Amino acid sequence: xxxxxxxxxxxxxxxxxxxxxxxxxxxxxxxxxxxxxxxxxxxxxxxxxxxxxxxxxxxxxxxxxxxxxxxxxxxxxxxxxxxxxxxxxxxxxxxxxxxxxxxxxxxxxxxxxxxxxxxxxxxxxxxxxxxxxxxxxxxxxxxxxxxxxxxxxxxxxxxxxxxxxxxxxxxxxxxxxxxxxx
Length: 182
Prior knowledge:
It is a single chain. By secondary structure, the chain is of the alpha+beta class. Helix content is 48%, strand content 21%. It has five helices and three strands. It has a three-stranded antiparallel sheet. A hairpin with a 3-residue loop joins β2 (141-154) and β3. It is extended. It starts with a helix and ends in a 15-residue tail after the last strand.
């Protein structure tokens, strides 16, 4: 038995001094690809979008802890395209609103035929306004259509949504004037 101990000690010594064969030896380290720096246009548009979204979110009384704009795509567009987008959006939103009222409303004022008639009248006025704007709007690409993912965290909510915003050449948000509805 005495002769076995030196032999085992020699085997253990050799085994401990050899490099270990494990899965780490096969691991390939991959680095993230470098992202290209933003162009001056992308930088200006991204700053404008962050400012617009920050004002929009904070106007509801929320405090933003983080906000990011991801996957931003800037497309040169025309005013006519904007009005067509707005028309489609108004029609979809109004249909969704009326469907919601029909299915879920417990509030008698919202299901009141006179209230619905007033909503329908205003909707029709907006649609007529947008259709007239589409007829006269220039088709020359002179504004920006910006499609992006808004990712923001507040104390009350998390935003993670695809959005489209139209900006003029001064990077201000284009909004339609519906003040005639009052």
